[in-house]
Amino acid sequence: MQTVGIIGLGLLGGALARRLLKTGLRVAGYDLSADRRAQFTSNGGIALENSRAVANAAEALLLCLPDSNAVEEVVLEFKSSLAGKLVSDTTTGDPDRTAHLGSDLCRHETRYNDATVLGSSREAEVGNVIVMVGGKAEHVQDASSMIDRFAKQWFHMGPAGSGARTKLVVNLVLGLNRAVLAEGLTFAQVSELDPEKVLNVLKAGAAYSRVMDSKGAKMVQREFAPEARLSQHRKDVRLILEQGQRHGGHLPLSRLHEQLLAEAENQGLGDLDNSAIIEIFRRK
Amino acid sequence: MQTVGIIGLGLLGGALARRLLKTGLRVAGYDLSADRRAQFTSNGGIALENSRAVANAAEALLLCLPDSNAVEEVVLEFKSSLAGKLVSDTTTGDPDRTAHLGSDLCRHETRYNDATVLGSSREAEVGNVIVMVGGKAEHVQDASSMIDRFAKQWFHMGPAGSGARTKLVVNLVLGLNRAVLAEGLTFAQVSELDPEKVLNVLKAGAAYSRVMDSKGAKMVQREFAPEARLSQHRKDVRLILEQGQRHGGHLPLSRLHEQLLAEAENQGLGDLDNSAIIEIFRRK
Fold first, then answer.
1. Which residues in chain B come in under a pLDDT of 50?
2. How many A×B Cβ pairs under 8 Å?
3. CATH fold of the domain at A166-282
């Protein structure tokens, strides 16, 4: 039986581990947190003493880390152990750093691809996420049988870094669609319409967006228990703006979005669900 | 056989006339344009010499006019002839003026409702639009059998003017979703991703919005043959901002949207399809 290694057993890493175990793979893993390692073991995983041990134990590795800093730190630790290995990086990082890491590892004979995930950890656990992959065609091909185990659909977007770049585009559209819905529902309310009825009209016609299903009721009912935090999305938007600046993109809507999210954080909404952006439109 | 009257035989009025004729009604109509009247006659309608004649000939009337000015002009002409009649106004007008007209006509015993239509004239012709109705419950009930003939779904939103108000909310969300898609696809392009591939990723996941189906390919291929003109949407956005100001709404995204649309018009894109908004994001 093939062994897959997972470095980082947080929300996404833990879910992917459970998914891969369910599909019959042997999974070795490591996380800084002893609690997470214990959880992983209780799910049937093999917790090892550090990242290097995981890299040595497995031919195919998944990195599920919080950001580019963490990825670079882990990889620098044992770059040489990665020669010949297949590394799929699901971290939502800075795409330029992801691309750079990819070409650096490639020189060390590592088959690297960035495989960013679209969907919640709950969806990852049932094999229902979308994966955006960047890397050399042959390396992506090598990774595809593993990705097939947790993705309902995946796309090869281009060279290393392209997965992370696509994730930023998706986040740009997703977050702004949310903000647009928030402005629309607020406009409905000041116009003395029933926001719930209006939401039904919006869903029925050309103005429909999928955020209406995921966030519409939360906005109408002002129920902001976090599924994903507003502050996290502000970080995404900053990364989008940085990339835009670096590559010459004109992103006026995202610039305004960042201001609105900053305002929301200043009002203490950062730890609420990202649908709480609607409170900013309501404030007047 | 019941006779329905239609005043205004433009794109929408003409399509509704054809639809009602197809469902077996007798339809009397008037339009300022002789060409449109001739077209209407050739489709089986009964063209009359003026609006008053239409009002006299039919118990139930549809107004399909370009804006609130036209509606008020027509109605003032023969307000007394409308006593006891059922008037459904499909015009996308200023909601406050629509509400005012509704209560004025109500005092003259006219059963008025505003029944704004969401969808193209092509969809109206096959009975596939969504209708947002404002008016007294009993008047809306009276109009429902006619609305059922051309709507796949309709919603009673509240008192007179509520249909027009809801239409503005829908237009706010629809137009901004379009602008968001435009910014996202441009960001994809400067990030050296294939916009067509990215469009497929966007459609597959949580960032999906229905404008991706209607406008995505047009934006990617820069094919801007007008289905609905950019300048027309700018007028909608101005109406949204006016209403927002009057009712105390905070609409920062729509304010920015108006600036972007103004910029687009200044660059000569006004007569193109509203998907041409993407050119504004591309300009840098």
1. none
2. 231
3. N-(1-d-carboxylethyl)-l-norvaline Dehydrogenase; domain 2 (1.10.1040)
